Amino acid sequence: MITIKEVAELAKVSQATVSRVLNNHSTVKEANKDKVYKAINELGFQPNSIAKALASNRSNSIGVLVGALEGSFFGNLMKEVEKKTRDANLHLIATCGHMDKKVEAESLHFLDSRRVDGLIVHADKLEDEDLIKLAKQDRPLVVVNRHIEEISEQCFYIDNELGGYIASKHLIERGHRHIGIITGDMDKMDCRDRLDGYHKAIKEAGIEANVDYVYHGTYETESELNSQLAKQMLDEHPQLTAVLCQNDNIAMTVYDECDLRNLVVGKDISVIGFDNSIYCRYIRPTLTTVNYPIRDIGINATNMLLNQLNGSKLPVKKRFNPELVKRNSVHSII
Questions:
Q1: Is 329 part of a structural domain of the chain?
Q2: pTM for this one?
Q3: Could you tell me if 223 and 184 are in contact, meaning their C-beta atoms sit under 8 angstroms apart?
Q4: Sequence-separated (6 or more) residues with CB below 8 Å from residue 117
Q5: In this structure, are 199 and 219 located in the same domain?
């Protein structure tokens, strides 16, 4: 096994210089960096990352916990985080919680065992107290898509109630009075907030709320539950003129059910989504939805970690407002 001593001898520098190069110290002269990297390549030296982490108390890695590894929502988040960390000469270690409290806890334990320098956490099922406790540890932490008052300075989120409100209000302004809604998992705060926004808009317009118009589904892609609910909703309430979906995955399911019934979205019935996933602009009719700026959240969350880890002074914004993206899936009945 090639050692640091052999690298130092070939590069004609001290072992301390080799160590500083491997740990990305800014004090190393460029000429010495070149010598060390040349020697590393010539010898085929492979540094022991665990030993390196123990020696420097830095692993040069960021740990990320997300809810799922499929779909554009988490894909866009991961893309931006990975790009920012790589630009900072760091690496990403990602794991998935699968919307299960036990799996989320196990995933965080795994990231801790890898001695990551900072954490970006998207946790659906862990309690607020669990994340507050995690925030007290001696490691930078940011929480995305969730607001916890006790650690609000470490949270990156949107106003989900406002998102549900502006989507519902748009339908009401187009003349709709019988508006069904399919939510995500009601264990999630963002689902409850979006439902509150729906109720707020309905009440504000003087429309009598109908609890039978509310169906509780899931954010998951290709969900059998959402398919069943879309069918059930349209069977039970043929008077509905619009369906508000708490994410774009749900909206795709409603599109499918409408197609089976020869209902033309944007003409016979209106559908509105949430997230502004990439496929919203490519399906027909294009989907009116609420933009969730997940890319910006990923960038700003990573910026905060880099500021803490490297003393950077990158801009950080924590609270974002949703925006309605009007396309062709909503029609007027006024």
A1: no
A2: 0.82
A3: no
A4: 58, 59, 60, 61, 62, 90, 139, 140, 309
A5: yes
